[in-house]
Amino acid sequence: MDIQDHNATARWEALGSRDARSRGTAMEHISQEVMRRVESIGPIPATVPSPLATAGHSTSDLNDILARLLMMSKRCPFDDVRERCVWLLQNVQDLGVRIPRTLGNGPSRFIPEKEILQVSKVDPRTQSIFEDAFAALGRLDNISLVMGFHPQYLESFLRTQHYLLQMDGPLSLHYRHYIGIMAAARHQCSYLVNLHVNDFLQVGGDSKWLNGLDGAPQKLQALGELNKILAHRPWLLTKAHIEHLLKAEEHSWSLAELIHAVVLLTHYHSLASFTFGCGITPEIHSNGGHTFRPPSLSQYCVCDIANGNGHGHLEERRGNHQVSEVSGEVEVLMERMKQLQECRDEEEASQEEMATRFEREKTESMLVATAEDEECVPSRDVSRHFEDPSYGYKDFSRRGEHVPTFRVQDYSWEDHGYSLVNRLYPDVGQLLDEKFQMAYNLTYNTMAMHKDVDTTMLRRAIWNYIHCMFGIRYDDYDYGEINQLLDRSFKVYIKTMVCSPEKTTKRMYESFWRQFQHSEKVHVNLLLMEARMQAELLYALRAITRYMT
Ligand SMILES: CC(C)C[C@H](N)C(=O)O
């Protein structure tokens, strides 16, 4: 059974059906084919180092199937399918074939697996969100599992993503996934690149395009420039860039197509931020998610070690020591919030003073160092084909760069961006708006162990700080608050995660907000991701509006 084979694919997809009978039939077919395939290879003693290597070409298909079964046995939200997959893997193993096991410890390198929701133990609402996600894409990915800390948000996120990728829209399906690949590759996010390479091939995309942007149609090649600017310096976008895409004679984009592309690009840039910010691990069934080797070998991935992520235990121990040093951190922060609240009512700074505070914060944010100097291991996956040597990442260091100020009074999401998107790509403006609001307003009124706290001020500071890094200014916000509420290590994390997400390390994740819950750090990631997406969108939409008028 070839995994790309159409019938086979349909059968895997049927495992996501809500109807238990269809799932049962699909599972029956899969079981028979797996067993047939195993028998055709013949019983292989488990002592042979790579048991399937001797059996030639067909083994890689079998390996893929086994990896997929392993993924299903852990991640399928339907109990019956999970149980059958475990049973099937056991049977295959009994025949003397080595089955894969998962590498790593769950969906995130930063968050212990036991703290993340288990598909088998969720409340009914989350269960149904997981089932929908599974039915739509035939998987429940690690991103969704980690977002599962915030089911309300997850629902809105998945609804939007489903609409952008699978529902009626200006762009064809393979274009959508290809644009996702281009965007994720800008940040060397092999996790997202791998996911969408699979999807791209599944919807009939041409594998030649995967050799790099040169292999893709000119129309997509032309999007490369927009992709780069949006990802790294969106304030440089002008109407000339838009005109270039819309007026290219043969390979031109329609306005509606361009909006679709822009939304996809910004969605995947910011999702790459989330992926690195939460240390999302490779999916079980893709490269790096499982291994056929026995335990003890390949404990660490070389790249983890190089990134300072290989010393889990050591860091944990060190972490415990630090807890005593930082106790009180939350209380100090809460005290500051209280004071700011009180002062707010007293003094009003002048307009000039407010503008100066913004400029100061913006300039300072440029100077916050990311992990630029740390060695970064070049990734060896498909994303390297998309790199453009003329646009090295070093060039994108924002240190000391002048970013012009963008006044929300002149162009805002609510008054301008939203309606432009809705006009050209119906419903998407609405979906994005709901998602932004969801992220912006989400609160449980908690701060670490404290309950009944109004965290508005803190969440506002985070959102506005990200927009400030992009030069976006709200006239009525006092940027002096940011310095009171966000400390240095938090700013380093934010800057890295937003500007060069691939450089986020476990150490950075651990060194900010040490007393907060993991769910709160994921919450922070949602704010960062959505604020970044909105900032990029604002620049792109403003350029489009300027072109149109
Ligand atoms: C990001 C956190 C400060 C959010 C906080 N736990 C809340 O419920 O509002």
UniProtKB/TrEMBL annotation:
Transmembrane segments: none
Cell location: Cytoplasm
Catalytic activity: a hydroperoxide + L-cysteinyl-[protein] = S-hydroxy-L-cysteinyl-[protein] + an alcohol
Disordered as annotated region, ranges: 1-26
Principal cellular location given in the protein's record: cytoplasm
Keyword annotations: Cytoplasm, Oxidoreductase
One family name in Pfam for this protein: PA26
Name of the protein: Sestrin 1
GO biological process: cellular response to L-leucine; cellular response to leucine starvation; negative regulation of TORC1 signaling; positive regulation of macroautophagy; regulation of response to reactive oxygen species
Species this chain originates from: Hucho hucho
InterPro entries: AhpD-like (IPR029032), Sestrin (IPR006730)
One example GO MF annotation: oxidoreductase activity, acting on peroxide as acceptor
Taxonomic path: Eukaryota, Metazoa, Chordata, Craniata, Vertebrata
GO cellular component: cytoplasm; nucleus
Family per record: Belongs to the sestrin family.
